[in-house]
Amino acid sequence: MRFIKTTEAEGHVICHDIVQIIKGVNKDTIFRKGHVVCKEDIPVLLSVGKDNLYVWEKDDTMYHEDEAAQILYDMCKNDFMKPSEVKEGKIDVIADADGYFKVDIGRLLEVNSLGEMMIATRHSGFPVKKGDKLAGTRIIPLIIEKVKMEKAKRTAGTKPLLEIKPFLHKKVGIITTGNEVLYGRIKDTFGPVIREKLAEYDVDVIGQRIIGDNPRDISDGINEFLSEGANMVICTGGMSVDPDDTTPTAIKDTGAKIISYGAPVLPGAMFLMAYTKENIPIMGLPGCVMYSKRTIFDLVLPRVMSDEPVTKEWLSSLGHGGLCLACEICLFPNCGFGK
């Protein structure tokens, strides 16, 4: 990059966008970075106050910001992603499929700590839709040393910083527990809530069984759904510590491995997560999922729908940010819940 007088710029390549501002009329880029200055451009450049320009000179030790931005994008990109157009040393990473979004936060921090470059992402661990912006990358100066970008590549490693795990088709069985529902003392209002949340994904609800508080009956109902090909079973209710709350016992009696009974999330502390020997998830949902707009279920479901394992360690990590503030106008996931 070289600093020259605009009157001497004919034939040179501009290193940065030139913006024209006319109050109340126009604010727009009149010359894009990379434009080759011709004789007719010089009066226009002078009219917008550009008596001097930075022009590009090829230097084997330096990258132009657009070239370096491509390197940042290459560190991020993975399957089911595409780039935006490069502009002013910036490239956005765009989702090319619906799925569960993951970021390697540790390596991202290392790259951003190098200086003169940045990658800003949306939060890891949340669903994204095709067309969503996943990250923005930018080189801060107009040019950057090649050795610095090589260091950045070594820091990032060979594995992409970002990942989308596409959502899968699932066949779901719903078990509604409680004698009060079985005998018609109250209407089932839990099932419709679960169906509404599942409707956001590629799901077939293969059935809903209303069962009382007998743990053997609940276990039998779960096993029947599994034998019918369900690859997810959701049990609603009966998750507290009262004598009639027998759902946790029933899930355990199926032979499934209990990953966690309880999670540091409000609403949703009495949530249960289990997996069968065939790795089919079984969830026990506490009553709060029925009446609270956002709960532990909203944090777990996208993970389950992409076959991302729900581990005890991950559930434990939800404590920081696991308090829903029950805002009058819910903005989830554009809020702090689960982050």
Automatic annotation (TrEMBL):
What GO molecular function annotation could you give as one example from this UniProt entry? metal ion binding
Q: Does the keyword Transport apply?
A: no
Q: Which UniProt keywords apply?
A: Magnesium, Metal-binding, Molybdenum, Molybdenum cofactor biosynthesis, Transferase
- Domain (MoaB/Mog) spans 173-306
Instruction: Name the cofactor(s) required for activity, per the record.
Output: Mg(2+)
Q: What class of enzyme is it?
A: transferase
Q: Which Gene3D superfamilies match?
A: MoaB/Mog-like domain (3.40.980.10)
The domain of life for this entry's organism is: Bacteria
GO cellular-component term (any):
cytosol
EC number(s) recorded for this UniProt protein: 2.10.1.1
Provide the catalytic activity annotation. adenylyl-molybdopterin + molybdate = Mo-molybdopterin + AMP + H(+)
Query: Family, per the entry?
Result: Belongs to the MoeA family.
Q: Protein name, please? A: Molybdopterin molybdenumtransferase
Species in which this protein is naturally found: [Clostridium] fimetarium
